[in-house]
Structures are given as C-alpha cells and as structure tokens.
Design a protein that fits this description.
The chain is an alpha+beta fold. Helix content is about 40%, strand content about 20%.
C-alpha cells in the first residue's frame, strides 16, 4: 500500500489550496501580500483547533516539534511574533468567505431533517461569549464586562449553521434576526427572546413560517377552536388575532395558538405560529427540536477554541472564531460521508489522537485495520 500523508494533511485537502488562494487574493488588495502567509496561518490555527492548543507559544512549539511533517502541507514555519502579527493585521473576512464555501459543500451532502414535511427547518438563537473588558476594550458589553455574541440560524438538515453573524455583546437578538433572509416556505423555530409582532407579520407576508412561544400578557381574541388529542399532551388549538391596539396594528394577520403540556416535566407551553397546515403536535415538536441550536452552542464551546483567545484585537478574535467554525464544517463534512457511523465528538477525538499519524483518514474513521486498502480522502468527491 502506498504511504499516506498525515491525518492533518488529508483533512486539509478538504480545502483545496487553489480555492483558498483565490479567496485570499480576492480578500486582499495590497501589492506585497503573499497568499502563503494566510495559508500558513490557516494551517496553524486549524491544527490548533483540532489538537486543542491554548496559546501562541503552544501552537508554535507544536509545529516546531512536528516540522518534518509540515513541509508537505505547503505551510511556512511561523514564529510566535509572525503568527501574532498576521492574526492582528490580516482581515478575518477571508475565513468568513471560506466558511461560506465550505457550507455549500456540506449542504450538498447533508442528510435531511427528521420531520416528514419537506419545508426547510431552522432554529434561531444567539449565545454570548464573555471577554475580559480590560484585555478586550473594543468588546464593550457592561460596565465591567466585555462580550461578543454569536447569532445562528441552524439548518436542521445536517444541523449546519447556515446563517451566522458575530456581533458585539450589546446587539439585541431581534436586530440581527430581522436581517436574516430565510428561504420562502421555510419554518423557523424562534426563542421567545425574539418577540417582535411586526417581524411576525413580515415573515407571514414573505410566506416564511415561524413557531415561537406566545407571551403570557399578549392580548388576543379567539376566532375559532379546533379539537385536540389530549392524550398527546395538547390542550388547545385556536385561531387568534391580537386585540391590543399597538399589537394589532403591528401584526394584523390571524395566527395559530397551540397549548401543550409536556408529559415528562408537566410544564405547560403556549405556542404561536402562522402555519395552519401542520398538525398541532408537529408544531409542538418543532419548537421542542429548537433545542438543537442550544446543543450546537454547547458543542462548539466545549470542543473548539472560542472561549479563550490567542489574540486580543477584534480581528484576532474574529479570525479565531471563523476558523473554528470552518473546522466545525470540516468535521460535519466527514460525518456526512457514506458508511461512517460516527458522531462529531468521536470524529474530533480520533483526529486529535492521530493528527500526525500516517494512515488513511477514512480508514481511521471507519475503524478499519491500518493496512486495509480502502478508499482514502483522495477518493472523496468534493461537491
């Protein structure tokens, strides 16, 4: 069997060098720019994400220890000061663009969501990443606290973060939510924190369905009632319209009010939706599935380096976040490969333990013997 490149090298082949350089050249205008420096930055910080490195010194020392295995990656050896300077100075927008490229590739191989309906399904939420204000003065959040906020519209087809925005911590969730362009016919599960009656009306006019929780003090009148199956936990299924003067002006359309009692916790929920086609139980299940976006935030915070940062400038922090999100998509793409029954957690752990080993990547992930002549990463189709 022909010798393999390292696991890290095969993983990075999912980002073709020519595509990366095209993005890099488009992202820069200065004459003295060298795409090799950005590629070296990407290789170094991707390695750091996959291996759990916590500091610039840790990253550079690890690269130096594995120098004989880095030459074939086309990556130059960066000193601590050079890597720090690139992180501070070179715009993070390159990795935001790379994220978009990788997202399309993942969407082409992602499985569908777990519901019977064919509409695209999204969950929308935001999560705050705390920062020390004295070290990150640009991330002003509160009097003694800094923060940035990650806004995500998670597509349930493969649980991919299809819509993603990083803002200062003070940015209100709904301000970003209004700007997201969900496709016509899609269904969006929305946290109660996004409550905006004018936005609900705008989504309805765009033929975008939403499922959220109705505020307990929302004034409304019942237009009609439908029978429900109480054995499924349903308590009501009504058509309503808002009766408050300002609320009715902002959202004059008729909506659907569904009551549901969770059989496990005993808690009672009241959902609001503009979808009159799906069953009441399906509407309740859609909101319950919104928990997937919470699991996404939990996963990336626990497994990728987006809570502690190797630079203090806004550009360095954003660079690290967008590369971490690119790594998430690389892991997702591997997870979507046929005949691979592994979780994202298992894939990441296998990569961490074998990053500089020379064996077939897919053979490793499938658990095949090291000498088994099965297709490796070179035979994967990059759609």
């Amino acid at each position: 069997m022909a010798p393999c490149n390292t696991i890290l090298s095969q993983t990075l082949k999912l980002v073709p060098r020519h595509e990366f350089e095209t993005l890099a050249k488009h992202d820069h205008s200065e004459r003295n720019f060298c795409t090799a420096s950005r590629w070296s930055q990407f290789v170094s910080l991707t390695m750091a994400q996959l291996s759990g490195r916590n500091s610039l010194r840790d990253i550079v020392d690890n690269i130096s220890a594995q120098a004989h295995r880095f030459y074939h990656l086309g990556s130059a050896k960066l000193s601590r000061s050079n890597l720090s300077r690139i992180n501070e100075d070179k715009p993070y927008s390159l990795y935001e663009a790379l994220f978009g490229t990788l997202l399309v590739r993942c969407q082409n191989v992602a499985p569908g969501h777990n519901f019977r309906f064919k509409n695209p399904l999204y969950s929308l939420d935001a999560s705050t990443i705390d920062l020390c204000l004295s070290m990150f003065p640009w991330a002003d959040f509160r009097a003694t606290k800094g923060a940035i906020k990650l806004h995500v519209g998670l597509n349930h087809a493969g649980y991919l973060p299809e819509f993603i925005t990083v803002t200062e911590g003070k940015k209100h969730d709904i301000t970003v939510g209004r700007l997201l362009k969900f496709p016509k016919g899609s269904i969006v599960a929305i946290d109660k924190g996004y409550n905006d009656y004018a936005w609900y009306n705008a989504l309805t006019n765009k033929r975008i369905f939403f499922v959220t929780r109705l505020k307990s003090n929302a004034k409304h009148r019942v237009i009609c009632r439908r029978s429900v199956l109480k054995e499924k936990g349903l308590t009501c299924d009504q058509t309503i319209e808002f009766s408050g003067i300002q609320t009715a002006k902002k959202c004059p359309v008729q909506l659907r009010r569904i009551g549901y009692k969770d059989p496990v916790t005993g808690k009672h929920y009241v959902f609001l939706s503009n979808n009159f086609h799906l069953s009441a139980k399906t509407i309740a299940d859609i909101y319950k599935a919104r928990w997937q976006v919470e699991l996404f935030f939990k996963w990336i915070k626990q497994n990728l380096k987006i809570k502690s940062f190797i630079g203090t400038s806004k550009n360095a922090v954003m660079t690290q976040i967008w590369i971490a999100l690119c790594v998430y998509l690389l892991l997702a793409f591997l997870k979507f490969q046929p005949k691979l029954d592994k979780s994202m957690q298992q894939i990441l752990r296998l990569l961490q333990l074998n990053l500089f080993e020379k064996r077939g990547l897919m053979a490793l992930l499938r658990g095949d013997p090291p000498d088994d002549k099965l297709p490796d990463i070179n035979q994967m189709v990059l759609l």
